[in-house]
Structures are given as C-alpha cells and as structure tokens.
Amino acid sequence: MTDYSTIYQQLSQLAILTEQTGGMPAEEIRLIKNSSLLDIVLPGEALDFEQDNTAALLAHLKDVGRSNGAIGRIYEGHINTLFLIHLYGTAAQKEYWYDQVRRERKFFGVWNTDSTVGITFKVKPEQVIINGAKGFCSGADLVDFALIGGKTDQFSGTSDWQMVIVPMQQVEEFRIDRKSWEPLGMKASVSYTIDFSGIEVGHSTLLGQPGDYLKSPYFLGGAIRFAAVQLGMAESVYNKTLDFLRSLNRLEDPFQKMRIGKMAMALHSGQLWIKNAGQNFDDWKYTADLNERLVAYANMTRLTVEGICIEVLQLSTLCVGAKGLMAPGDLERWHRDLTFYLRQPAPDATLQNAANYLIHTDQPIESCLGLKPAIDEPSMMAASL
Ligand SMILES: Cc1cc2nc3c(=O)[nH]c(=O)nc-3n(C[C@H](O)[C@H](O)[C@H](O)COP(=O)(O)OP(=O)(O)OC[C@H]3O[C@@H](n4cnc5c(N)ncnc54)[C@H](O)[C@@H]3O)c2cc1C
Predict the structure, then answer these.
(1) What is the pLDDT of residues 155-171, one digit of tens each?
(2) Against a cut of 0.90, is the pTM above it?
(3) Separation of 342 CA from ligand 1 center, angstroms?
(4) Cα(19)–Cα(14) distance, integer angstroms
(5) Where are the domains of the chain?
(6) Interval 169-210: pLDDT, tens
(7) Residues 6 or more apart from 208 whose CB is under 8 A from it?
(8) Among residues 27, 72, 93, 192, which is most buried (max CB within 10 A)?
(9) Nearest CA to ligand 1 atom 25
(10) Range 5-35+68-207: architecture per CATH
(11) Which pairs with CB-CB distance under 8 Å and at least 24 residues apart come from 103-107?
C-alpha cells in the first residue's frame, strides 16, 4: 500500500493550525482529495471492498485517527458511505458515484443522527422532497455528497428508514447552523446541524430499499471503524505524552515508567481487538447464522476500545500534570478531542446486547470470540486412545 506518512504528518500539523485559527479543516480535506486516500476502497484499489480487507482498512483508519482525530471522523464517514454504495447501490449508481470520487475528487459523508425534527422523505412521481434536520453532520460544508437517513412514505413492510445521497451543492448556506457546534473537543470536525426542509432531489439519489441501512450485520457491526479511529487517537496521546516527558527529562522516573508500561499494554490490547474485529468481520459476514456473533464482537470491540482510551487518557493526565495540559500544547487538544469523540450512541444498551448474545448462544466462548481451539479435541482423544 502507498506510504501515507507525509500526508499524516501534514494532517497532524494542520490540526494545530486549524484549532488555533478556529477555522474549517479545508486544507486537510484538500490534501485527502489530492491523494489516493480518497479512492482507496473503490474497485481495484488497495482496500477494495470487493476483497476481504477489513483488518487492513481498520489499521488504515487507525493511522488517520492518529494523525488528526477530526479528520479521522470525517474520513470514516466518507469510507462508510462508499461501503453503503458498495452494498446497496445499483450498477448505474455505483458507476456515477465512483466516478464522482475517482475523476471529480468528491468527498462523501454519512449523517444519520436526527436533530429535534427528524428527516422524512415524500416520494413523488418526479422527485423526492426532504423535510427535517440532521445534527452531528461531520464535515458539514466540506463534503460534496451526504448520505442521510429518514422516514419515507414508501413503507416496505418491514421498515420505513430510507437512505438518500444529497448533492451538497443543493444545500444552501443558510441551512447550516454553525452555532449548533460548541463541543468540548473535535471542533474541527465541524459537525453542524443542517436543515434540509424543502430540498428536492431526484429518484436516483435513493440508495437501496427502506430498511437496508439498519440491516444486520453492517449497521451495528460498523462500530469497529470509529473504534479504530479512536484507538489511533489514543496512540497519539501516548506518543505526545512521551514527547512531553522526554522534554522534561522525566522518562527515567519509576512511576512514570510504570504508567508508560500500562499505557502501552492497554494500547496493544486495543490493537489486538481491532485486528481480530477486522478478521472476524470478514470471516463471519457471509454467513447469516454468524451475523449476531459479528455484531456482538463489534459491540465488545467498541466498548473495549472506549475503556482503553479512557485508561490512556487518565494515565497520560497523571504523567504530564497541569503543565502538560495547557494550550497551545498539542496534548491539551488531543485530550479534549478523544474525550469527546468517545461519546457514541447508547453505550449501555451496546453492552447489554453483546451480553445477551453470549448468554443465549449455545456456542462456546472461544467460538464467539473467533478463537480457534489450541488443541483439536477429537485428534487429542485419538492420540490418547
Ligand atoms: C465528534 C462527533 C462527530 C459525530 N459525527 C457524526 C456524523 O458525522 N454522523 C452521524 O450520524 N453522527 C455523528 N455523531 C453522533 C454520534 O453517532 C452519536 O449519535 C452521538 O455521539 C451520541 O452521543 P451521546 O453520548 O449523546 O449518546 P446517548 O446514546 O444519548 O448516550 C448518552 C448516555 O445516555 C444513555 N442512554 C442512551 N439512551 C438512553 C435511554 N433511552 N434511556 C436512558 N439512558 C439512555 C447512554 O447509555 C449513555 O450513558 C458524531 C458524534 C461526535 C461526538
């Protein structure tokens, strides 16, 4: 795969600049658009969705997160949209949207979180009329196409949740509420609220059938992608913590060594979870009977990574003290960004769901975790006879 280390360095530097100026991460997005990061999952490319590349994709998302958390968030949305097009697009839609990425260098985003008034779609013979607003629209006025979910009046019999890919050139400036985004961290993800009411789009923007977006295992199973970005951010907190201690010549202190060791151990556990999550995703996604297992493993991965990131943040805080957590020091921003980005939907229900699967399955825990038995039991019995 292409070496992206120079781009990662640039993204890392730009994060500092964007935070200081309070501006948009436009230069960061331009860098990605001008590189093969933009089309990396398209057919024939390094992380082609047609191949079983999930572990490599997660490692890639982790790298992006380690360079720049806000861009990691926006970029994950681009990858997620292309995955949904890969899963549910017609041949003509794929041709059109892939071409928009390859030739026109267009960036995509997924905005599923409803604002106070959720999205509805009225499907007319000539067009589709959108009403309502979305919150948490990462990359709000930087992406070129936004996949939004909402209730359609064309109920499929099982679900009315429809995906529509809105060309952002149809979304006028006044619809973007910039005051809606005053977060603790991840300010540069520019996740504004956008009001889509009254916008009309063509039928060709409808992606898949109602209910496709929420289908198992891809909806909940997709949590492993944002977990990978979060873990990359925790790796950056670790690196910057060491840099700070080095600058004060404090690395040889036994208590600091203890905390550094604990951080490294926690990060490595996260790396193993993410790697296994990618492998299990590819091993289990084709078998309907294993979909629940895939989702349970993704849920556990997400929560384990959350716990690891919290542990790393806590240990880093103890390592660097107040002096290390002051702006314009970079570590201060990383702490706020990661703390905030760890807040993802319904963590308690996520654990309940994973535990429910484990309680009700008749499979041994090793199988649920994707572990192969160390010793093949029948052959061991044969050997002992
Ligand atoms: C930086 C950032 C960028 C984002 N970008 C996007 C984006 O581009 N697109 C997008 O679609 N979304 C985006 N999101 C939104 C994200 O997917 C979540 O919807 C959002 O983070 C929800 O967080 P929350 O902590 O408020 O969740 P909640 O689910 O409200 O959880 C908060 C707490 O309430 C508990 N809880 C949840 N439900 C209940 C209940 N019914 N009863 C009692 N307790 C409950 C939870 O267990 C938890 O303890 C983004 C979020 C962040 C932080």
Answers:
(1) 777 889 999 999 999 99
(2) yes
(3) 9
(4) 8
(5) 5-35+68-207, 218-368
(6) 999 999 999 999 999 999 999 999 999 999 999 999 999 999
(7) 84, 87, 88, 89, 162, 163
(8) 72
(9) 343
(10) Beta Barrel (2.40)
(11) 104/144, 105/33, 105/34, 105/38, 106/144, 106/145, 107/29, 107/32, 107/33, 107/38, 107/74, 107/78, 107/139, 107/142, 107/143, 107/144, 107/145
The span from the CA of 297 to the CA of 221, in Å, is: 8
**Whether the Cβ atoms of residue 367 and residue 297 lie closer than 8 Å to each other:** no
For residue 253, report the distance from its CA to the centre of ligand 1, in Å. 39
Pocket lined around ligand 1, Cβ cut-off 6 Å: 73, 77, 109-113, 136-138, 186, 189, 191, 340-341, 343-348
Strand 145-152 and strand 120-123: the pairing is parallel
Fold adopted by 218-368: Butyryl-CoA Dehydrogenase, subunit A; domain 3 (1.20.140)
Residue 226 pLDDT more than 60? yes
Which of 107, 119, 187, 343 should be mutated for ligand 1, with most atoms under 8 A from CB? 343
